[in-house]
Amino acid sequence: MAKTTSKSKSTSTDHEYLSDESIKSIVNGLSRIEGHVRAVKRMVEERRCCDDILTQAAAVRSAMNRVTAKLVEEELLNCLTTCGQPDAEDRMASAMKSLSSMLKHS
Fold first, then answer.
1. Closest of 52, 40, 53, 61 to residue 104, by C-alpha
2. CA-based Rg of the chain, rounded to a whole angstrom?
3. Any idea what DSSP says for residue 10?
4. Would you list the DSSP string of 31-98?
5. How much is the pLDDT for 9?
6. What's the CA angle centered on 103, arms 49 and 29, to 5 degrees?
7. Which domains does the chain have, with CATH numbers?
8. How many Å apart are CA 60 and CA 32, to the nearest integer?
9. In the chain, what is the straight-line distance between the N-terminal and C-terminal CA atoms, in Å?
10. pLDDT of residue 16
């Protein structure tokens, strides 16, 4: 008889690094992206100009990068502040500037 094991995935309730305000901001951003993606899909179905579709697809990507940056910012800030570093916020600002620059070029 084979032994079965189940692996449980980590859930967001394991780590509460997102404030209510951050969650609201991220969910709102994702909702806007969801609507934007539906609009791009509709443009494809309507056989709209490829340049217009590509411009809108780039806008969706940019919006996803902003959501990603916000999630990374929250996680890094939580890590730095819980580690008790006195210059955590300055270090965070520097890291976010670098991340933002990287995402703009992705």
1. 61
2. 19
3. P
4. HHHHHHHHHHHHHHHTT--HHHHHHHHHHHHHHHHHHHHHHHHHHHHHHHHHTT-TTHHHHHHHHHHH
5. 45
6. 70
7. 20-104 (1.20.58.1000)
8. 9
9. 50
10. 66
Residue 105: DSSP 8-state: T
Tokens of 36: 């934007």
The pLDDT, as a whole number, for residue 106 is: 67
74 in Cβ contact with 18 (< 8 Å): yes
pLDDT score recorded for residue 54: 97
pLDDT along the chain (106 residues), means of 10: 44 63 94 97 97 96 89 79 72 77 72
The pLDDT of residue 88: 72
State how far the Cα of 22 lies from the Cα of 19, in Å rounded to an integer: 5
Q: Which two tokens stand for residue 81?
A: 């502040």
